[in-house]
Amino acid sequence: MTTAAFVERCRELAAGSGCSEQTPCSPGPELSESESLIGFFQLFRPDGGDLHGLFDVLRQGDQLSERLQNAYQAAGDDRRPQGGRDAFFIVRSPSPLAPEQAEHLGATWIQGLQQLAEAVADSHVAQQLASPPKIRVLEGIPPKHPKQPHQRSELLNVFLDHAPGLTEKVAGVDPHAELLRPAYYFIACDAMLRDYLMWPFYAEQTGLADPFDSYFTLWAHGVKFRIFQENQIDLYLPRHPDGS
C-alpha cells in the first residue's frame, strides 16, 4: 500500500471515531500528510480496538500492532480524575517497580542506545555513551530539566538533541516509518517511546535487539529520567500510596 493510500485509510478510521477539529481527519493546505496524522492514535483511547487490521498491509504489521497495544494498555483510560481527557498517553496508575530492576533497565537502555549509535555511525552519541553513566534511582516528582542549552550538561544534550535522531539514520527503511513518525512522537511527546513503538521498522536493517524495550518498561511503570550531571542519569520512580 502506498503512503497516500495508508493516510486515506487512517482518515476513514478517524472519521468513524468522531474526528474533531482538534484532531484533523485530513490535511489542510498548511499540513503535510504526516502532520495530518498527529493526534490520530489518541482518537482510539482507551484500548485501540478500532485500529484492528490497520497495519495488516505492512510487513511489520503484527509487531507494530502489538507494541501499540502495549502503549494503550499501559496508559489505560484517558479520562482525567478532575474531568476532561488527556491529550497524550499518560500512565496514571503504574504498577510498582523495584529500584534494582529500574537500575538494570536503565543500564540496558543506555547500552542499547550506544549500540544503535555505533550501528548508524553516530560517533558523537556512541562516544558519549561508551563509558556508561551511573544510574541513580530516586522516588517522587522529578525536577525539570534546564530550559537553556548552555545550562545543560553535554550528556543531557545527547539525550535531548542527538539520541532522538538515531533511528532516522537507519538506511533502507519502509517509507511508512517517516509518514508515521510525527503521530507516534505526539502519542506522549516522547522520542524514546516513539522509537520503541516504531522499532519493527528498523529491526531488520540494524540487526540489533530492540534498544528501546527497557525504556518502554520504565515508561509503563511511570518512571521518568533526569540528567543534571555529565556522568549520571537519575530515574524517578512514582510514589505509591501503599509504600510499595
UniProtKB/TrEMBL annotation:
User: What is this protein's record name?
Assistant: Apolipoprotein acyltransferase
